Amino acid sequence: MIAAIIIGLLGNIFAVKYRVPVNMIYIPSLVSLVPGGTIYLAMKNFSLGHYALAQEGGVLAATLVHFGTTL
Asked: Of 13, 17, 46, 55, which has the fewest CB atoms closer than 10 Å, so is most exposed?
């Protein structure tokens, strides 16, 4: 939670300083906070427009989370 607040505050400052949209600062910063390599790769593929690869990774991650919480 604290990391997200810091990203929000610093993201706004750097977006104004470098004159870029805030999303260009937020998204790469927040995606790196997502736990798990599989979910990270799914988010990376989704942001690059590789939707089929992102869907495969997302389904795999959801399956792993489901089985992990059921056990």
From this structure: 17
d(CA 48, CA 54): 9
Query: Please, how many CA atoms are within 13 Å of residue 68, restricted to the half-sphere of its CB?
Result: 6
Q: What is the rounded CA–CA span in Å between residue 34 and residue 58?
A: 12
Q: From the CB of residue 27, how many other CB atoms can be counted at a distance below 10 Å?
A: 14
Q: Which pair of structure tokens corresponds to residue 24?
A: 């260009």
Q: Whole-prediction pTM value?
A: 0.50
Can you give the pLDDT at residue 66? 60
Are the C-beta atoms of 42 and 61 separated by less than 8 Å?
A: yes
Q: Are 3 and 33 in contact (CB under 8 A)?
A: yes
CA distance 36 to 24: 22
